[in-house]
Amino acid sequence: NFLLERGVRGFALHVLESISLDADGFPKAGRHLRLSLEEAATLVDDAPTVQRVLLFVPNGPRPPHSLFHPDSTYAVEQGLITKAPVRAFALSLLGVEETDTVWDLGAGCGSVGLEAAGLARRGLVVAVEAKPERVALIRENRARFQVLNCEVVVARLPDALPRSPEAACPADLPLGLGS
Fold this sequence. Notes:
Blueprint: H1 2-5, E1 11-21, E2 27-36, H2 37-41, E3 52-58, H3 84-94, E4 101-105, H4 111-119, E5 124-129, H5 132-144, E6 150-154
């Protein structure tokens, strides 16, 4: 569901359960399932203690990931978007690194945060937006570009900001993260 909610498509999931070794010492699975992501999302974990390995494999060629998508590729409201050169310049000044957490406050259509997510590939982007129609745009753009490391917080500022330095992790916020 995590992947589907972010618009990831084109993958198959191989589930290997009850893994053991054969007589020659090679791993073997007691059960092997090949599922689409949609099929996997409907499964109920009826045996949470069973050993499992999940392998995601593309069903076909994947589009190359790129940064700084053209403005025209974003879903926007009435042409409102931080233009590509401004996004590139601002993010270069911030020096976003691979494991950083980036807060996009008043995220609009999400263009700045989604571009930051490409730079912070092993980090997290928190896109904060109060207007429901813009939240929908962020989610649509997140799916369009298959961004996995961007959480959307539906809140007015400053309510969405951490209450203290110790609460700087989005999971610790008193309000619920909105996938």
